[in-house]
Hints:
The longest helix is centred in the first third of the chain and has 13 residues, at 3-15. Helix 5 runs parallel beside helix 8. It is built from 8 helices and 9 strands. A hairpin with a 5-residue loop joins strand 4 and strand 5 (138-140). It is 30% helix and 17% strand. By secondary structure, it is of the alpha/beta class. It folds into 3 domains: 3-33 and 83-124 and 169-241, 3-Layer(aba) Sandwich (Rossmann fold), CATH 3.40.50.1220; 42-77, no CATH class; 128-163, no CATH class. A 6-stranded parallel sheet has the order 3-2-1-7-8-9, sandwiched between helices. A 3-stranded antiparallel sheet has the order 5-4-6, with no helix packed on it.
Amino acid sequence: MDQATLTKLRALVKDSHSIVFLGGAGVSTASGIPDFRSPQGIYNCESKYGVPYETMLSHTYFEEHPSTFYEFYWSQMVNVKAKPNLAHFALADYEKRGHHLTIITQNIDGLHQEAGSKMVLEAHGSTKRYFCTECGERYSLSDITPSGVPHCPKCGGLIKPDVVLYEEPLDEEVLGAAVSAMERADLLIIGGTSMNVYPCAGLVNYFQGQHQIIINKEATHYDPYCEYVIHEDIGTVLSAILKE
């Protein structure tokens, strides 16, 4: 990103009253959490279970094969050692300085909150939360032993991660809040996402502002609709444009 572009982006940020950041898996790759759809992503790796990893993250697979679901889930979807990176901290610091910023994240790792962000809408849920499929009792990750198939200590029911699997709808309250944030924003920053996952990618249709920025290492089909397209490291770029 050249200096002229950086200057323009900083001016857009400075003049904005309400920013939405729509982020995907690429935001957390620098934290050691693999993405899904890049050439090296989880979905492009050969599955050792005989079915595609994408299939394993479906509601049907969870119900029919909880043992292999959790074997895959604990090894690939939960990383308790992961820490926030430059991208997470840049967004959190911007909010801490008193600016209005809403994060809509497709990630389930909770790293935005760990970095200090408060206005976070987790469209796909979180690996930090769990619930019993029988009695509905809620648990946190610290209550669960991250191995094997967890069962509710109260009723013995199967415990499910509070994440949105394929075949499951998004939480209506979270989705409604995301739509409202988009409608009132005057600047949209899209980062670390292929823009291929719906309905999250469709949220951009509710944005009524004039300026859109997309930051992603690979090109996306949504690039032509953005005023600024940056194919660089998202942490470096966010740190630069959100800096006062």
